[in-house]
């Protein structure tokens, strides 16, 4: 009787969960035309290319484009109906990024950036025809020459970034006579700079900042990770002013966002320094 109740309690303790396969966006009654993009840029599919694929008579409002399971907005030179021989589809194409990689990590917070994939730079796009649902198109509408009547903004928040690709850092390790690295996608595993040695900070210059001195403070988001079993503190400085300082021993990482006072940004350029105080 004791064993029977133990089994019952174990069954009650189980929880069911659905596993996403990332194919939920596919309509299996449609045909998808596959092509690859390996760099960011404006891409064009001319009407003759579509015609050669048997899509010459498709109304342009029914075209639909997908990348990594999400619909991509497209522009068509014809607002509706079939395209002429000089018409085309145009879209902003992007190389593969690290968004799909997030599910590979033992803990998603270990992925410092989703800007770059660890697997491949090539993204796969799928063009299909959807005659029954809504599609994501840019409108063929002229600009309003009379203006919007909205007040002029005094400033806007501009974001610039540096995504180091000197190496794929091997990630978290334990010392067992030598460094034994985790076989999982773990802490510190990402595209990174070269090693930063004590007394030799890594410096990264920023330009074209055009600081608006009456606006709010800036902020900087960055990540660092240890690559040896040492005790250390790490710092980040902007134009020589330390804005972040923490203990980062061994193979642990540091991913944070820090405030950068406008007084530090006294021109259109800035030097960001990553410091290893091992």
Give a written overview of the molecule:
This protein is mainly beta. It has helices at 2-13, 47-52, and strands spanning 33-37, 41-46, 63-67, 70-72, 75-76, 88-93, 123-129, 167-168, 173-175, 179-181, 191-192, 202-206, 218-225, 233-238, 241-247, 253-260, 270-277. The strands form 6 sheets. Strands 1-7-3-4 form a 4-stranded antiparallel beta sheet, with no helix packed on it. A 4-stranded antiparallel beta sheet has the order 12-17-14-15, with no helix packed on it. A 3-stranded antiparallel beta sheet has the order 2-6-5.
- Summarize the biggest pleated sheet: 4 strands, antiparallel
Shape: flat
Radius of gyration, whole Å: 26 Å
Helix content: under 10%
**Strand order in space, largest sheet:** 1-7-3-4
Number of strands: 17
Quaternary state of this entry equals single chain
Number of helices: 2
Mean of pLDDT: 90
Instruction: Give helix and strand order, one letter per element, not per position.
Output: HEEHEEEEEEEEEEEEEEE
Poorly predicted tracts of residues: 4-12
Summarize the entry for a quick read.
This protein is mainly beta and 278 residues long.
List keywords for this structure.
278 residues; mainly beta; 4-stranded antiparallel beta sheet; 6% helix
Topology at a glance:
Layout lengths: L1 H12 L19 E5 L3 E6 H6 L10 E5 L2 E3 L2 E2 L11 E6 L29 E7 L37 E2 L4 E3 L3 E3 L9 E2 L9 E5 L11 E8 L7 E6 L2 E7 L5 E8 L9 E8 L1
Antiparallel strand pairs: 1-7, 2-6, 3-4, 3-7, 5-6, 8-11, 9-10, 12-17, 13-16, 14-15, 14-17
């Amino acid at each position: 009787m004791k064993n029977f109740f133990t089994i019952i309690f174990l069954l009650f303790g189980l929880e069911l969960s659905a596993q996403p396969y990332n194919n939920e966006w596919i309509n299996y009654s449609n045909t998808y035309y596959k092509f690859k993009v390996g760099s960011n840029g404006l891409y064009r599919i001319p009407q003759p290319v579509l015609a050669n694929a048997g899509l010459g008579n498709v109304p342009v409002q029914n075209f639909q484009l997908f990348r990594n399971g999400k619909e991509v907005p497209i522009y068509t030179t014809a607002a509706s109906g079939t395209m002429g021989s000089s018409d085309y589809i145009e879209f902003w194409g992007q190389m593969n990024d690290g968004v799909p990689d997030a599910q590979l990590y033992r803990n998603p917070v270990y992925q410092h950036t989703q800007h770059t994939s660890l697997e491949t730079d090539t993204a796969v796009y799928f063009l299909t025809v959807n005659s029954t649902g809504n599609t994501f198109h840019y409108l063929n509408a002229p600009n309003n020459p009379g203006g919007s009547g909205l007040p002029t903004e005094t400033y806007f928040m501009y974001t610039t970034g540096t995504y180091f690709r000197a190496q794929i850092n091997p990630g978290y390790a334990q010392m067992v006579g030598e460094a034994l690295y985790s076989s999982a996608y773990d802490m510190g595993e990402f595209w990174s700079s070269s090693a930063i040695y004590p007394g030799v900070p890594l410096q990264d210059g920023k330009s074209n900042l055009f600081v608006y001195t009456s606006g709010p403070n800036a902020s900087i988001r960055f990540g660092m990770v240890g690559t040896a079993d040492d005790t250390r503190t790490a710092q980040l400085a902007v134009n020589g002013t330390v804005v972040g300082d923490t203990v980062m021993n061994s193979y642990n990482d540091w991913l944070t966002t820090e405030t950068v006072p406008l007084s530090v940004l006294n021109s259109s350029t800035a030097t960001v320094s990553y410091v290893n105080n091992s």
